[in-house]
Amino acid sequence: MTLDILGESSRKKEEVLEAVNHYKEMISGIASDRLDAAITIKITSLGYFLDREVCLRNVLDICRSADRAKVGFEIDMEGRSLVDFSLKAAISCSEDGLKVTIALQAYLDRTAKDIESMIKNGVRIRLVKGAYVGDTRDFHVIQGRILGFAKMLSETRVAFALGTHDPDVISWVKEETDLSYNRLELGMLKGLSDETKLEFARNNWRVAEYVPFGLNSIAYIQRRLDYLQQLKILGRLPAP
After folding, report:
1. Which of 62, 71, 95, 184 has minimal Cβ neighbours within 10 Å of its Cβ?
2. Tell me, what's the pLDDT at 177?
3. What is the rounded distance in angstroms from the CA atom of residue 76 to the CA atom of residue 105?
4. Are strands 160-163 and 184-189 parallel, antiparallel or unpaired?
């Protein structure tokens, strides 16, 4: 399970402080209840638009708290203007000896190089389609990239996560003999592809359900509706 506190684009110091405290409370709750869960953070909720150095310190502070509590920590990806800073934050965490995962979006032209950079710097990758505005909206191009990047990660023998509901990509996972549940975690949104989640879990694969919560849900809900509408236009459905 990957927990996400809904809320983006904090523009007041009070909002940033509140976000930091909420993330730490979530870490404490996961640890005290001994949940098999990780947290994912949004850069824009931690002060990016106010002071980037403060934002970076906040990311490191939360990552250290997660590390002490033995709770997984991930930096979620937002718009492409935030990619460089997000990568910098992930590398800073890794250089501090902390375990960190970062989401990388297949619809960006730069992602192949970013994958190489993150592997070099010891940052775990969660590969996703992308939910904002990318360099391409072509479904088949993005699908081809996800498969290509997943194969590249598989060949490197590093552990990574793959966030997808695409039946074709999921079929590849099932058929890829070089993958194992020790190196791959399959990630899916809460409320989608429940049958597939259970099938993989029954076969001893690691499956992480992305669980968002909180009151600031408008932006998240709109992205999910846009995703489902795109599939509808293409005549496709998520995996069952």
Report:
1. 95
2. 62
3. 10
4. parallel
Token output for 190: 């809460």
Owning domain of residue 15: 2-234
User: What length is written for the chain?
Assistant: 240
Predicted TM-score (pTM) of the model is 0.90
Q: Which CATH number goes with the domain that contains 197?
A: 3.20.20.220
Tokens 């005290």 belong to residue: 32
- The token duo for 50 is 């106010």
Which residues lie below 8 Å from residue 36, measured CB to CB, with a gap of 6+?
1
What single-letter amino acid sits at 141? Answer: V
pLDDT digits (tens, 9 = 90+) for 207-230: 999 888 877 777 777 877 887 888
Question: 137: exposed, middle or buried (C-beta count within 10 Å: 0-12, 13-18, 19+)?
Answer: exposed
Domain count across the chain = 1
